[in-house]
Automatic annotation (TrEMBL):
Upper taxonomic lineage: Bacteria, Bacillati, Actinomycetota, Actinomycetes, Micrococcales
SMART domains recorded: HTH_XRE (SM00530)
CDD domains according to UniProt: HTH_XRE
Domain HTH cro/C1-type, first and last residues per copy: 24-80
A Pfam family assignment: HTH_3
Protein's UniProt name: HTH cro/C1-type domain-containing protein
Length: 206
């Protein structure tokens, strides 16, 4: 599990981005570990860890490292050069779901495509490393298909979570609002077999 942290190397109390805390919380839940269990393993108070996860208390780098070890995780300082991870993008798409803002969701999806194209190979793998937050069957399949397509284009390994979102080959679902006519020959294979009908040309803005 890789978590991005942006802090300088001086002092114990540093600003920890909430995306890092969110990533740690998601990883803890995926491992089916309770706050109490991670707190016991790390030596932190459960109330302290709960406050950190909820964002009501700013963690020190040391406490975050202790919590990560308690969950069996390792922290890694990574510079993604301003790019977002697949997990971050999925979180933003999920946040837009209740409002029905499909244009925003589609733009975020294209942004992920751009980030996967524009990054160097090491960063591409890191962008895709963390399993995204589940949204719904269509978006989960779309994000997995996009990551598979882009990483395969560059001969890079696929994270395990990509194979979990199979989609529905019969659905002909599109990220765009309204009816969009797309020829099957124009849809990248990893998207097509998941029933996500988006042409490669629509994802080539990078």
């Amino acid at each position: 599990m890789l978590m991005r942290i942006d802090f300088d190397t001086l002092g114990d109390r540093r600003e920890i981005p909430m995306t890092t805390v969110d990533a740690m919380t998601r990883a803890r839940r995926r491992k089916r570990l309770s706050v109490a269990e991670v707190a016991r393993r790390s030596g932190l108070q459960p109330s302290n860890l709960s406050a950190i996860e909820s964002g009501s208390r700013e963690p020190t780098a040391r406490n975050l490292e202790r919590a990560a070890r308690g969950a069996g995780l390792h922290l890694l300082v990574v510079d993604l050069h301003g790019r977002s991870s697949a997990a971050d993008i999925a979180g933003e798409i999920a946040e837009a779901e209740p409002t029905g803002d499909r244009w925003r969701q589609a733009r975020l999806f294209v942004q992920l495509s751009d980030d996967l194209v524009g990054a160097d190979p090491f960063v591409k793998v890191l962008i895709a490393a963390e399993p995204p937050r589940p949204i719904d069957a269509e978006w989960d399949a779309a994000i997995a298909g996009l990551v598979e397509w882009r990483l395969t284009q560059f001969g890079l390994p696929l994270p395990e979570w990509v194979s979990d979102a199979l989609g529905d080959v019969e659905s002909r679902w599109s990220i765009w609002p309204g009816a969009v006519r797309v020829d099957a020959a124009e849809v990248p294979a990893p998207l097509l077999r998941r029933g996500v009908w988006v042409s490669g040309a629509e994802l080539e803005s990078a």
